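Progress note, sequence design subtask.
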């Protein structure tokens, strides 16, 4: 799990939540996180001590900001993704199920946790359209992994 794209609490643009330390050298779940906005320079820090992360909804698990990538579809459901990679994973999953029947391919645990309505065949056209719509809202400079200056 890398960057999470959220709605900036100050300007309503795209802000990014990312680990402060290198996720390859520390336990990624337990390192501090920064929330930073490229548009208005808003910045906040989340500390693992004394605060818990909360997973499983259309908000980031640390700052509880609404995710940028979310849209209602399939009759009141909310399709959401943490970032561009997550969105592409869901897209790939839904498209693969368009083509293939038979044994499940080895997907990541992130995809195993997808709700049943996303996995439902009757929703896949609408989900594919919703993903295209969400992808179009991503500014090109957000969600790409960049080296620190
Ligand atoms: Zn902002």
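Output:
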């Amino acid at each position: 799990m890398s960057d999470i794209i959220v709605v900036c609490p100050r300007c309503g643009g795209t802000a990014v939540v990312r680990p402060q330390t290198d996720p390859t050298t520390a336990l990624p779940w337990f390192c501090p996180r920064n929330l930073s906005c490229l548009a208005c320079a808003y910045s906040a820090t989340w500390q693992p001590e004394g605060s818990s992360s909360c997973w499983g909804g259309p908000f980031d698990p640390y700052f509880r900001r609404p995710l940028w990538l979310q849209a209602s579809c399939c009759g009141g459901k909310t399709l959401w993704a943490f970032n561009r990679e997550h969105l592409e994973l869901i897209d790939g999953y839904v498209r693969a199920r368009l083509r293939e029947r038979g044994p499940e391919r080895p997907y990541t645990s992130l995809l195993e946790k997808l709700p049943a309505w996303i996995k439902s065949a009757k929703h896949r056209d609408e989900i594919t359209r919703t993903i295209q719509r969400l992808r179009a809202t991503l500014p090109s400079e957000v969600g790409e992994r960049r080296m620190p200056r």
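Residues 8, 10-11, 13, 15, 37, 39-40, 42 surround zinc ion (CB under 6 Å). Work on this subtask will continue into the next period as scheduled.
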